[in-house]
Amino acid sequence: MAEQKDIETAITRFKESCGAYEKSDRYYRGDHDLKFATEKFKNVFGPLFREFALNLCPAVVDALRDKLILTEFGVEDGGDTGLPEAAWKIWQANRMGKRSGEVHKEAVKNGDSYVIVWPNPAGEVTIYPNRAATCTVIYDEETPGKVLWAAKHWRAADKRFRLNLYYTDRIEKYISKKTPGDRIEATASFYDKNFTGGNTAAAANVLPDAKDFVPIDDDIPVVRNPYGVVPVFHFANNSDIGMHGQSELSGAVPIQDALNKSVLDMLVAMEFASYRQRWASGIEIEYNDDGDPIPPFTAGIEKLWTTENPEAKFGDFEAANLEQFLKVKDGFRTDMACVTGTPIWYFMQAKGDFPSGEALRKSETRFTNKVRDRQQSFGQVWEDVMAFALMIENKGKGVRLFAGWEDPSPLSEKEELENLMIKKDLGISDEQALMEAGYGDEDVKRMMAANLAKRDAMVDSFNAGEDG
Description:
Layout: H1 4-29, H2 39-49, H3 57-65, E1 70-74, H4 82-93, H5 96-110, E2 112-119, E3 125-130, E4 135-139, E5 147-155, E6 161-166, E7 170-176, H6 181-195, H7 200-204, E8 213-215, E9 222-224, E10 232-236, H8 252-273, E11 278-281, E12 286-287, E13 293-294, E14 313-316, H9 323-340, H10 357-363, H11 365-392, E15 402-405, H12 413-426, H13 430-436, H14 441-467
Antiparallel strand pairs: 1-15, 2-3, 2-10, 4-5, 5-6, 6-7, 7-8, 7-9, 11-14, 12-13
């Protein structure tokens, strides 16, 4: 069994990391920390704007996630050509076309996500995506990047908390000690309300201490791991060596707060500017018993201000210029694009002609490079996941796969054809051009034969005309 220090390390990790996960979850959902210029503004307008947020955070996350589409697994030349097909079969059986997108989204949004691979009761390889807040991995300082062990926590059906520790040779199962029923119900209710609602910081704080966990009371407290690999795989977004990842929203949150503040200020200005403030001078003011001035007029659409004093003057104040607020708002959108490396048109409509083709690819160079970096780092983890899955299915040990991704900056069909025409002018054969256009071997052979027959017919027709 594990030493107590491993349980303590796992619980500490969960409690230390949950705050960052909670904030990025909230900001993605639009639950932001709204700022007001003064406490008075907060008291007056807080209820009005409590649910408000001009939320750009989903665009930051989804723009990157949508480009991370895994299309295939392959092997190097000379490798077993049946392995990619076997890996893809496991991939499809686990519906990873969709679930891999969920893994990528979690990693981009929170900085981390996890996949646990293990045979199900029927002996079939099963891939279990997990959220950042439920898992953690411990890396080997001596061998950076190597996972020594991992942990996962959740709440069981009996309202108590479960904790699994994953090692290279075993899986240890723990459960929190029993407490009075009302306390269990209260704690579980709080945990469910906050954890499932995204408030992982509050939820993790109710986790029992390490000393409150005991080996689970069942027939198999320890599961043997015969594969020699920790079955928990860590997807770390933009991480340092042997470290946890960084959320793509870490740099976006301050700008999002500033953007919300600017829009709230504009809405407050609109509230006041919707009914222009009027003034009057040269009239006598009366006072009440407390010495406070009594307003001489009541403002309202149906009210008319009149006085018998010929020296009285009336006027109104100039309305606020809301155009400046709009410029500030657009400025923060530009800042969001610069800080996060997300193309500006994900946040606002392009002014003038929308860039296309080569101009669009050049303007997205930084973003495209970021996508390729994530494809590289996430792809290596997926390669390890599928190699482990193939090991479970006795397809081989130490399998080396490579992940294929959808091109994050593809050419249009028109651009591809134009490039092929240029290559033909440079001397490539018709057969090579057709293959690069994406036609299969059979289609290429059929079209080449048809073209040859057409040329032969033209030659025969020409010769017949010469003879005549």
